Every structure is written in C-alpha cells, then in structure tokens.
Amino acid sequence: MNTNDKNHNLSVELGKIHLRNPTMLASGILGISQSIFERLYHENIGGIVTKSISVNPMKGYPNPTVIPLGGGSYLNAVGLSNPGVNAFSKELSQNKTIPIIISLVGSSEKEFSKMVKIFDTLNILGYEINLSCPHVSKMGMEVGDDPEAVNKIVKTVRMNTTNPISVKVGVGSIDVVELARVALDAGANMITAINTLRAMSIDVETMMPILSNRIGGLSGNAIKPIGIRCVYEISKKLEAPVIGCGGVSSWKDVIEYMIAGASAVQIGSVLGSTGPRIFNQITKELKNYVEKKGLRNISEIIGIAHKY
Amino acid sequence: MNTNDKNHNLSVELGKIHLRNPTMLASGILGISQSIFERLYHENIGGIVTKSISVNPMKGYPNPTVIPLGGGSYLNAVGLSNPGVNAFSKELSQNKTIPIIISLVGSSEKEFSKMVKIFDTLNILGYEINLSCPHVSKMGMEVGDDPEAVNKIVKTVRMNTTNPISVKVGVGSIDVVELARVALDAGANMITAINTLRAMSIDVETMMPILSNRIGGLSGNAIKPIGIRCVYEISKKLEAPVIGCGGVSSWKDVIEYMIAGASAVQIGSVLGSTGPRIFNQITKELKNYVEKKGLRNISEIIGIAHKY
Amino acid sequence: MHTNIDKRRIVRIEETISETPTVKTLVFKDDLSYTAKPGQFLMIWIPRIEEIPMSVMINSKDGYAAVTIRKSGIGSTALFNRKKGDLIGLRGPYGNKFVLKKSYQNILIIGGGTGLVPLLRLASYACKKKIKATIVLGARTKREVFFEKIARKITEKSDSTFLVCTDDGSYGIKGTTVSMMSSLIRENIFDCVFTCGPELMMKGVVGLATENSIPVQASLERYMKCGIGICGSCCLDSLLVCQDGTVFNGRQLSKILDFGISYRDKDGQKINYA
Amino acid sequence: MHTNIDKRRIVRIEETISETPTVKTLVFKDDLSYTAKPGQFLMIWIPRIEEIPMSVMINSKDGYAAVTIRKSGIGSTALFNRKKGDLIGLRGPYGNKFVLKKSYQNILIIGGGTGLVPLLRLASYACKKKIKATIVLGARTKREVFFEKIARKITEKSDSTFLVCTDDGSYGIKGTTVSMMSSLIRENIFDCVFTCGPELMMKGVVGLATENSIPVQASLERYMKCGIGICGSCCLDSLLVCQDGTVFNGRQLSKILDFGISYRDKDGQKINYA
Ligand SMILES: Cc1cc2nc3c(=O)[nH]c(=O)nc-3n(C[C@H](O)[C@H](O)[C@H](O)COP(=O)(O)OP(=O)(O)OC[C@H]3O[C@@H](n4cnc5c(N)ncnc54)[C@H](O)[C@@H]3O)c2cc1C
Ligand SMILES: Cc1cc2nc3c(=O)[nH]c(=O)nc-3n(C[C@H](O)[C@H](O)[C@H](O)COP(=O)(O)OP(=O)(O)OC[C@H]3O[C@@H](n4cnc5c(N)ncnc54)[C@H](O)[C@@H]3O)c2cc1C
Ligand SMILES: Cc1cc2nc3c(=O)[nH]c(=O)nc-3n(C[C@H](O)[C@H](O)[C@H](O)COP(=O)(O)O)c2cc1C
Ligand SMILES: Cc1cc2nc3c(=O)[nH]c(=O)nc-3n(C[C@H](O)[C@H](O)[C@H](O)COP(=O)(O)O)c2cc1C
Ligand code: FES
Ligand code: FES
Question: What is the mean pLDDT of residues A173-177?
C-alpha cells in the first residue's frame, strides 16, 4: 500500500481481501447482472456483493415485493428470487477484474457445498453467507436463529473453499454478537452486519398488508442507528473485520460506520433515490474527508469510537 | 357501552380495563407528574402509562440522554431515571379519575412485589412491566432476554395484585412472540409491544458516541414497521389484548396498529414535535374515521388484517 | 396533492372503458398521474393479488388519469376485472420520458397494442405544441384495434394524422408497422421516431430509423419489482429500465446487446425472445 | 444554513471572553443561534462529558452567537474550560420567547447573573424597535457584575438606561433588584416587566409586578434532558419549561404552584428551594 499516494488512500483490507475503497454494493440490490457490476465498477465502487444465490432458481414472492416507505426507508420481501447457481455462474463466467463477493443462501449444508464448488472456479473475492434474511422460512433468519445450524453451514463452506467468507448477521431472535462469534469460531473470516429487520406495513384504506408475503425486511435510513450499534458491539468484542450495512446514504454514514468499527460499508436502499452514481459521489467525498482530516489512509479511523 | 352514541364510540376494552379511546401515553414520556397527567387527560388521552418506576430513586445517566435523529426518530438512554416508589406513590396519591397504568422496572422479584404492594393502594388501572429497556443492565432487556426471569417476575406481580398486568416486550435477543407467550402463561393479562431497539449514533466530526451511555434505544418513525409486525404476530398467535407502541405520529398510525391487532396504542416520541395536543388531534381524527367508515365502535377494526 | 411520488395512493376506479374484449381502460383521480410525462409508468397495486407496472394513460378530465390493461396473467386479469368503485393502489409515476426537442416540427409515432398508451400522451403534448405528428397504430387484425377514437380526437384540430394498419388488412392499411414506416420515411422527413409496443416490433422500428439516420426513441418493458432502481429485475445490459428508462434513444439502444434478443424472467434468468 | 433545529451542529469556539473568574462567554458561528429569539436556549454538547441547556447570548458579528457559562458542576465547568479552537455540539434553539407587543413603549428589564443572557438579546431588539428599556442588573457584590460593557453598548444610542445594583452596595446602587424595581415603578409607567435570573428573585419581581397590575414575563429554568418536550424532566406543574416556556407570563405564573417553591431533581423528585 502506497501511503504517499497524493490521491489520498481510500483502500481497505478485509483480511485477505483488498478493496480500492470501502464502498460496497449490498446483497440483493441490482445484483444479478455482470453488466451492472461493470457499470458499478466504473462508478468507483470498492466491492460488489451479488444477490443471494441458491442451488435452484427461485421465482420469489409475487409483487408487491419492495415498498418505499418514505423518508429513505424501504420494506421488502423479494423472497430471495435468483437465477440459481448454474445460470449465475454462467453470468459471472467472463468476470476478470470486478471485485465480486457471492452471497449464498441455502437450507442445508449440502446446498452450500455444491454452490461453493461451482463458484470457486470463477474470478471472485469470496463469499458472504446470508443467514439473516428475515422473511423466508427455512432459509435465512430461521437458520440464523439456530447457532448449531450456523456452525454447521459455516464449517461446510469453510471446508470447501479457501476463499474468504463473511457471514451476514441480523437483528432477530438471538444476540448479534453471539451469532457472529459462532460464525467466526466455525471458520468465517469476517462479519457483515446487518441485514433487514422483520417488519410490516398495512394499508389503512383497504386494511390489507401490502407485501404479498405480509412480513418483510426493513432497510434504509430507519435501521442505520441499529446497524451502527451492531457494528460497534461486534467489532468491540470480536477480532475480525466487520462490514457495516444498513441505511447508508452519504459519505457521513460511511464514516460513522467505520468509526464504529467497520472496515468497509455496504450500500443498498439509497440507490432507489440516487441510482448507481451514489458510489462515485461518496468516493469523491470520502477523498475530501481523508484529505481534510489529514489521514494517510481511511482505515486509520476504523473503530476509533471504541476509545471513547 | 352505548353503541348508539352519536359521537361515535372510540372506547376500547383491554380485558378489564376500559379506556374512552385507544390513545395512550407511552412510558417514559412526560411521565412523572400528576399535573401533566391531568393536562393530558384534558387533551382527551385514553390512558396514561407512567415512567418506569423502581424501588429506589434513580438519577439515570448523564446527558446527552435523548437525541433527536431527524425524520421523527429519536435515540435515548435516559437510564430509567425516576423518583422511586415512595416519592411516586406520593405524587399519585391524590389521583381519582385519571386512567393511570404504572410502569414497573426492577431487578428482582422482591423489588416488584414491594412496589406493587405500595401502588395497589392508589387509584390506578393496572401495571405495565418493563422487561425491555434496551440499555440498562440487569434491568429491562437483560431480564427480558431470560424467559425464566420473566416468568418469575410476572408470577410475583400476579400473586401480589388483582389489577390487570401488561408486559412490555421488545425486539432483542429472543423472539417477541415467545417472550409474550411466557409472560401470558405466567399470568399477565396483556402485552405491550414494542419498546425501543438497541441503537447508537456517533458524531462524525468528533468521532465520539453521542449518548453518554453510548448505546440507547431507537424510537419514533423508524421503528413503526417493526412495531406493526410484532403486534401482528403476537395478536395472531396469542389470545390476549395487545397494546401497540412505536412510531405512532398520526391517526393513520393508530389505525394501522389496530388493524394489525392492537386494542390500544401508545404514543411517545412524536410529542417532541407536537406537544401534548397530539392526543386531542388524533382523537378527533379517529372520530372522523369511525364516522366515515360507518363503524359502531372503533374496536371493530382490531386485527382485521389477519383476515388477509 | 401528494408531492412524494413514492407514497402509495389508494384511488377509486371512477369509470371503466372496454377497448376490446381483452383490453380495458380504468379511469381514476390522481394529481400525480394526471401530470405524468409521456413514457412514465405507475406501479399499480391490486390489493392482496399483485403489483404491476402500467403506463399512464391520458384522460380528458382535469386531475384524472387512467391505465389501459391487456389481460394476460394473474395480475393483469385481476386488474382488468376491477369494476367502477373498486380500490386500487398507485405509486409513481416513475421513469424518464420521451423527449420532444424544441427543434422538432414533424415526428413519427409508431405504436402496437397497449404500447400506444404512452404514445397518446406524447401525441397530445406534440399537438398542443403544434408539432406535426404522424401516428401509426399497428395491430394484427381489426378486433385488436383500439384507441382509434381518442387518437382521432387528439389529432382532429391539428395537421397531425392518424393511421391504422393491420397485418391481415382487415382494417386500415394492410401491412406491419415497419412496412408502414418504410413508406412513410420515403415520403416525409421526420425529426424523430417514437415507438412503444412489442419489443420485436420496436427492434424493427429502431433498426429502420438507425439505417436511415433518423433519431429514434423507444419505451421498453422489462419485468419490474421495485420500479425504482433497487431490485435489478428490470436490468437490460447495464441499464435499469425503471430508472434509466423506460425511454432509450437510438444511440443507447445500439449498444444494448439484449434489446430485441432476450429478457430476464422473474428469477433473473435470461430468456430469449421467441 | 441548517433548517432543522434538531440537527446537531459541531462548531468551533472562535473566541472566549472571561466575564468574571467564574463566568465565561464562548463565541461560535451558527446561523440558527444567530437568529435565535430572546428567551430561547440551546442544548450544548460537551463531547463525552455532558449536554446542558444554555441561553443564546448575542454577539455583534453576523452569523455568530455565544453562550455565557457560570461554572458550577461537571458540565458547566467542562464547558467553561473549553478553549478557542475546541469543538462543541449544538442543537436548538428551542423554546418560546419574550414577547414584545407592538404597543409597548416603555419596558423594564430585570436580570440577575447569567439570567441577563436572554435579556440582553431582548434589550437589543427593543432598542432597535425604539422601545425605551430600563435595564437593571442585580448582583450580590461588585466582583459578580458583568455584561456591563455590552449592556451600555446596546443602550448607548437610544433613550434606554442601564442600571446596576448590588446587595452590598460595592458597586452601582445599593439594594436588591426587587427594591430597585419598587422605586422604579413608583416613578415610571412600564408596559411590561421582563425578568430572568435566580428563581427567588424572579418570584419577587413577578409578585411586585402582579400587585401593581404590570404585565410581566419571566424566563424559568428547570432540569432538562431532552429540551424538546419528551422526557418530562423540566415539568413545572402541568407545563413543560422546554416546550411551553421558558418564558411564562404573569397569568400563567400565578397558577403555577411550584414557581419559586420547588423544582425537580435529576431523578424527578421534588425539592424545595432553600
Ligand atoms: C414500464 C411498463 C409499462 C407497462 N405498461 C403497460 C400498459 O400500459 N398496459 C398493459 O397492459 N401492460 C403494460 N405493461 C405490461 C404489464 O406490466 C404486464 O403485462 C403485467 O405485469 C402482467 O402481469 P400478470 O400478473 O398478468 O402477468 P404474469 O402472468 O405474471 O406474466 C405474464 C407476462 O407479463 C410480464 N410481467 C408480469 N409481471 C410483470 C411485472 N411486474 N413487470 C413487468 N412485466 C411483468 C411477464 O414477464 C410475463 O411475460 C407494462 C410493463 C412495463 C414494464
Ligand atoms: C433554559 C435554560 C437556560 C440556561 N441558561 C444558562 C446560561 O445562559 N448560563 C448558565 O451559566 N447557565 C444556564 N443555565 C443553567 C445551566 O444549564 C446549568 O447550570 C448547567 O446545566 C449545570 O450543569 P453542571 O453539569 O455543571 O451541573 P451539575 O453539577 O450536574 O448540577 C448543578 C446544578 O445545575 C443544574 N443542572 C444540571 N444539569 C442541568 C440540565 N441539564 N438542565 C438544567 N439544569 C441543570 C442542576 O439542577 C443543579 O442545580 C440554563 C438552564 C436552563 C434550563
Ligand atoms: C430489495 C432488497 C433485496 C435484498 N435482498 C437481499 C439478499 O438477497 N441477500 C441479502 O443478504 N440481503 C438482501 N437485502 C438486504 C440488504 O443487503 C441490506 O442488508 C439491507 O437492505 C440494509 O442495507 P440498506 O439500508 O443500505 O438497504 C435486500 C434488501 C433489499 C432492499
Ligand atoms: C425519552 C424516552 C424515555 C423512555 N423511557 C421508558 C421507560 O421508562 N419505560 C419504558 O417502558 N419505555 C420507555 N421508553 C420507550 C417508550 O415507552 C416507547 O416504547 C418507545 O419510545 C416507542 O414509542 P414511540 O416511537 O412512540 O416513542 C422511553 C422512550 C423515550 C423516547
Ligand atoms: S424494477 Fe427494480 S431495479 Fe428496476
Ligand atoms: S427537557 Fe425533556 S420535556 Fe422538557
């Protein structure tokens, strides 16, 4: 790493993973197309997490699946729709330089090992295991709420790859720090926090739940203070890189997550109001910040709030 | 109940508790002064929950203890400051007609039984047990995360009073429906959902956590979809009145909670922007709603979303 | 008036107009839809059934708008079956718009089926701006011709023209929209061609315009969940139809490898057009 | 310029002015504080130490404001010790304001200690509006007199007057503010009396004004956590000092049983004034 870089160094290290800057695409956001990944890379994104991929293609739930709630918050129950491991590995087969992390979702150890074997042949940075999708039974949260299942799944993925593994945790029915500890003990290299929170919206006029699945996950502005808290607690208590996620909509939010202890930050819902150019904008503003604060590298601020 | 009431009936029943309308003051909001309770009653409030009271007076944490986050959301770590059972029973000693529910907090069964014995001599409607304050150790959430402790405390209060008991649950480290089930099995008459969610805010300029306690509870707009979800799930799965709480700022929010399954609704943070007159305003608007929809009583809509 | 397009409005259907046995127009009151730009769409919520994207149809009453549905699967059929007085939800209008440059004096509008919906809004704007518009409505057969009355009404007090062509010649001129366009561009100089309809038809229109160096704008459809640039289900190469589109110009279209070739299914797999 | 008063601003202390050994003024740039109304207060964050309410002090520079702190406990002492260049946080200004009715021509302003802070802002507004103001600053002894220069500057180009009285006669006129007021109201007809300072002093001022049927407005202090009407810690009978006040008029004050009698401690227990 060249610390004399005149352009001010925004690069961060997540264990073995090097990112040119700490901004990442959150899973499930625009995440199924190599062309989009390339566009995002041109927008100066640091890293990309794909939509959560399962062994078989999943159609997901009927619409409405995504609801803008106003004030920069969103509710979704997409139902993990995705093209499945085969179609998606084809999608990424031409990837050379885009820093892609594949998000995996499944309901058994076998599914995870099958996917990892296929994806390991691609040019990717690593995996994120989605154990925290709050609205699909037997995948995501129900697995994430069972420490024994988490342990087994992470161990299985670990046995099948030497690529770095992040485990994505959420705020559900077991303590987020405990869950992270189980994941790291089982061989994960880092933690992504947080996923959406189980939530619901009912239309007052028709008296009907809006999402077809009734219950979905809350994302965006609303959850930022919860995400900050989780990152702070996990990074304070455990020794592993943490990727912050939840409600980031500006460079200030990225900095807040990093100060709380995040080594990188995922950005999702805000794209609904800004489009992909948000990455370029935030990266520029982070550069200004690093310059103004006289930092040699942005990673100097990671976890600095723990001092106080 | 006179269903021919020309003024459209807003009254609701929470088991044995009758409220003239479903609006209630949430615990911890303006809740330590009989004079304020009287003012709120003149503003047409349905019922009042006091600040959580402990055996001994508590100073709480140093400031900052309450942070407006913007967009109608708030973060607080007041530290359960309260005047204690003796001073507070004196405060309420002259109460005759104000519909007051006392919120109790404590760390042992003995503390709860002691308080109930004293408060039972007052004119009150019942108790709310706060098992879900997310930022005070050994009180609130840490108790609420331990089903065995919940069971014991609720049983103790039950043995010491014939007054109705609500247990206030939060989104923490055990499933909210499970927690509610334990509370009801132990003798609670109803459930209040939800309390604030553990959250944090860090100032980007100074890099320091803002709350003196660093971590606090998120309330207001941000948490409404989570509160709606909890009320929906609890009222769908369990047979007991549920009091909704979290992010209510208008009559529409009250209706949304009731449609989700709430028999009454507590209102807190929004007072920071409207003051106590919000109760008068919402009550008026609820009347209009009942009239427009041609309901004989507002309680007809409770839980109606479960049909869909 | 709502100022936040994302806010869900619940509106009552005030009128239904049967266009063909399988196409119906539903009229409702909504200020934001009334002022929608040509090419923009709404996410229409049919409570507890579906939410589907629909272009905003014009309506003659102030403050009113409409959608015109061709019944197809579960969502569109349920919407098709809604009656006067029923409630539906709306959010939007979303997306960009057809651009009418100040310099345009003579434009060609080519639509097929419900693809005419955004084009009629465009035609109405053009006529108000005294731009001469030639509107071509293509259909397979007479039974599938609709919007004729409204199109004639838009064009009647201007020097614009409205033409119908059917593949089987059962109504109007016999021929496809592309063959119609072929002869029209031989005889006229158009500043721009605007098109919306089946993708393979648009592919033909765009191809012909490009070959003849005529600027062209086409409004595309893709499977949409969010309508606001979050979910990625509408992606078309590196573009998002909901946020970057639905209207793309000839330069953009020439770079889109998937245009007229493939789309993505509900699970995101690529499917080739038949 | 921030439009949301709740938004925390981090400002740099640009100047410090030592008023007495225990009173200091800190000057900073903040548009919202600059335009604060007389009687309004800020919640001042001393990072990782405290957050305390402080009245907004005037400053002569455009876009600037200040706070004047008497050092007392942990929070105020930490703030007192902040130096030029240090950062503090602000939110607000909060609360209502002293009301200067259009009909007022001659007003009496009575302040004690840092209670003069909101009153100087008021006096400055009054002088600009050509209202004659008689400003009385009371202190126990000469060492505790401050703000004299700034008060003289405010009054110098008007027909307003500035008077100092000390309990021990070591400076200015000998006597309490209440005795001063007594003699002033015998010789003048005031449209309104404005006061801020120790509560027992205000109790005297309000009592005297009421007895003599002179309208009166007093700015009160209570322990504050939120400053915005949520926590209830500032309650004074049924009123919230932060939201309904800090300024109350004679009619309101006559109904407040706790005024001058008791306040609530950090845990909400009532404590009687000594
Ligand atoms: C921007 C835009 C504007 C449109 N405007 C109109 C219009 O004005 N009138 C009209 O009749 N149709 C319009 N459509 C098409 C309309 O959205 C689909 O016909 C409708 O969603 C079908 O729903 P379904 O449940 O009946 O279909 P399904 O039975 O679920 O599927 C039938 C077909 O419809 C497509 N479809 C289903 N759901 C969606 C969806 N959420 N988004 C896009 N396509 C979908 C599928 O790809 C499939 O090919 C528009 C589509 C888009 C993207
Ligand atoms: C609206 C308002 C305006 C004020 N303006 C000024 C001013 O311009 N200059 C000035 O010097 N002081 C002012 N004060 C008083 C100032 O807020 C307190 O002196 C200060 O908070 C003391 O903090 P501490 O930590 O030093 O006190 P502590 O040692 O904690 O307590 C000392 C005393 O200060 C009071 N106090 C402590 N914290 C608070 C609080 N959060 N809110 C109110 N009182 C508190 C306590 O009741 C106690 O009597 C004002 C108070 C209010 C309510
Ligand atoms: C429409 C949508 C789809 C999502 N899909 C996934 C997913 O497939 N896998 C996953 O781990 N997280 C998924 N998430 C959660 C996001 O990755 C992220 O954790 C969450 O949205 C919080 O970040 P944000 O506030 O920046 O959006 C999804 C979120 C949204 C809004
Ligand atoms: C300043 C503040 C203090 C609170 N104190 C308590 C408390 O003492 N006991 C309790 O059960 N809940 C307390 N709460 C939580 C509220 O009762 C309520 O559950 C929460 O604020 C969500 O409702 P709201 O969004 O309407 O504010 C407090 C909330 C705030 C904002
Ligand atoms: S429909 Fe979701 S990104 Fe376009
Ligand atoms: S300080 Fe909280 S209500 Fe006044």
Answer: 88
Annotated catalytic, A133? Answer: yes
Global ipTM: 0.95
H helices of chain C, in order, are: 31-34, 74-80, 116-128, 148-156, 177-187, 199-211, 250-255
The pLDDT score that the predictor gives to residue B142 is 61
B232 to chain A: which residues are within 8 Å by CB? 200, 202, 209, 214-215
Peptide bond into D25 cis (omega under 30): no
Nearest to A267 by CA among A238, C202, A275: A275
CB B223 within 8 A of CB A222: yes
* Disruptive mutation site among B25, B27, B29, B33 for chain D (greatest number of D CBs within 10 Å): B33
Q: Are the beta carbons of B204 and A255 separated by less than 8 Å?
A: yes
**Secondary structure element (H or E) that encloses residue D193, with its range:** strand D192-196
Residue C141 falls inside a structural domain: yes
Q: Is residue D99 part of a domain?
A: no
Q: Are residues C116 and C87 in the same domain?
A: no
Its pTM stands at 0.96
The answer to whether position B279 is within a domain reads yes
Enclosing H/E stretch for D70: strand D64-70
Does residue A59 carry a pLDDT above 90? Answer: yes
- What are the b/e assignments for D248-274, b being 16+ CB within 10 Å? bebebbeebebbbeebbbbbbbbeeee
pLDDT at residue A36 greater than cutoff 90: yes
Q: Is B167 a pocket residue for ligand 4 (Cβ < 6 Å)?
A: no
Tell me the residue type at C50: E
Is residue B3 situated within a structural domain? no
Q: Which atom of ligand 6 is nearest to the CA of D234?
A: 4
Kindly give the distance from the C-alpha atom of residue B73 to the centroid of ligand 5, in angstroms, as a whole number.
Answer: 28
Interchain CB distance below 8 Å, C8 and A67: yes
Distance of CA C218 to the CA centre of its chain: 9
The answer to whether residues B76 and B217 touch, using CB atoms and an 8 Å cutoff, is yes
Same domain, C76 and C47: yes
pLDDT band at D157 (very low <50, low <70, confident <90, very high): confident
Q: Which residue has the tokens 């805010």?
A: B201
Domain span including residue C81: 9-94
C181 in the same domain as C77? no
Residue B140: band (very low, low, confident or very high) from pLDDT cuts 50, 70, 90: low
Q: For the purposes of burial, counting CB atoms within 10 Å of the CB of A31, is it exposed (0-12), middle (13-18) or buried (19 or more)?
A: buried
Cβ contact B–A (≥3 pairs, < 8 Å): yes
Ligand that comes closest to the CA of residue D233:
6
pLDDT band for B4, please (50, 70, 90 cuts).
very low
| Nearest-Cα residue of chain D relative to residue B76 | D226
